[in-house]
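[Meeting: bench + compute handoff]

Bench side (C.D.) handed over the final construct sequence. Compute side (W.E.) agreed to return the predicted structure before the next meeting so the bench team could plan truncations. Sequence as handed over:
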Amino acid sequence: MNKLLFLDFDGVLHPTHFAGEDPFNRVHLLEETLEGSNIGIVISSSWRFTHSLEKLQKLLPNSISSLVIGVTGSPVIGKHPRYQEIRAFLQSHGHSNWRALDDSYWEFPTPCPELIRCNPNTGISEKQIQELRHWMIA
């Protein structure tokens, strides 16, 4: 696997304010897109602070959880924290070809061509799926 996808949950797999109803209601879009791929998924969501890797994997469909290779590490305080957490993971694991599915654009520098920005009110949509597909075949 030479491509890594850093995956946020809130604002990506479901709207940020889903109020506990139907969590992961957008995950099927990601599942269809990643079917048969060899992309590694790293969970960058803040859920990693309250759930073990195993618990996070159980929340996801099997086809996605089987692609999960880890979580980003300790939280970074300061400018562009999510981006810095991803960079630390990449450096420690020797990867450079990556994308992040995330709604928290302020946690990344501008511009950040690796960021596939989701709308926090809806989560992932066809626009982000097309960006993801384009990167996958490149």
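W.E. noted at the follow-up: The chain is about 30% helix and 15% strand. C.D. will use this when planning the next construct.
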